[in-house]
Each structure stands twice: as structure tokens, then as C-alpha cells.
Amino acid sequence: MAFPLAAPLFAGSLEALLVAFGITTAVVGVAALAANSNLPAKVRQYATTHAQTLERDMKKNEEREPTPFTAPELFEYTNIKGKKVALKKKVGEVWEADLLHGNHYEVYTSRKQFEKGVRNRAVTLDGRRMPGASGRI
């Protein structure tokens, strides 16, 4: 008896596995983004378990900005005060993943503001600004 998915699965094809279970190719894009090993485990877990919701949110016609989740090439990862953060290369902003919820980043205008705990804004994984999220944490 032949199994049609056996070859792709043994080859490590995540897309074949997702298609086999009826998950759309759009969600495969979210799964690929979630596979970025530079992202904190909590963010990867959230993106994997909420892939369809994230995909739906990404289709909303709202103003967005690049995040470490959607545009990892714009960020470099480092540790500041023992916390793994993403630094936006050209601007110098510090993006810290919210490890409690896993669905957004706390954004600080500079390393100094991060060390003081004064955030500028909170941004969802897909780049939408969260309302009312600014000030000292």
C-alpha cells in the first residue's frame, strides 16, 4: 500500500503536512514566519497555534509597520539586561516580545528608554498598533 504523503513528509516538507490536513497555503506563510528560530519560543508557539487568526488579521486593511515577525531581515537580535530583544537596524528601536501573551511586541524608542522601562507603543505580530499601549511598564 502506497502512502502519497510519505515521500514529502520524510523529506521534511511542512507544506505537504499542512496541505494534508486541509490548512490553506496562506497559513503556510504564517507557519514559515513562525519557524524563524530567532523569535522567542512564546511568539513561535502563539503564531503556530493561532495561524489562521493571524492570517485573517494580516488581510485586514489597516496601517501596519514591519515587525521582527513579518520582516526579520530589518532586525538584529541581541541581549540587553539579560533579555533577548530585536533591534531595528536603521532606527535603533528596541522590540521586546511580550512573553506573557506572545501576541505583540513592546517597542522602545532607544536602548536607554528600554533600560528605563519607558515604552513608546505596543505592536501586534502582524504590525498593527495596539490602542492605548504607551508609557511606563
UniProtKB/TrEMBL annotation:
Q: Which domain of life is it from?
A: Eukaryota
- For region Disordered, the annotated ranges are 50-70
| Transmembrane regions | 16-35
Q: Which UniProt keywords apply?
A: Membrane, Transmembrane, Transmembrane helix
Composition bias, Basic and acidic residues: 53-66
The name this protein carries in UniProt is: Uncharacterized protein
Q: Which organism is it from?
A: Vannella robusta
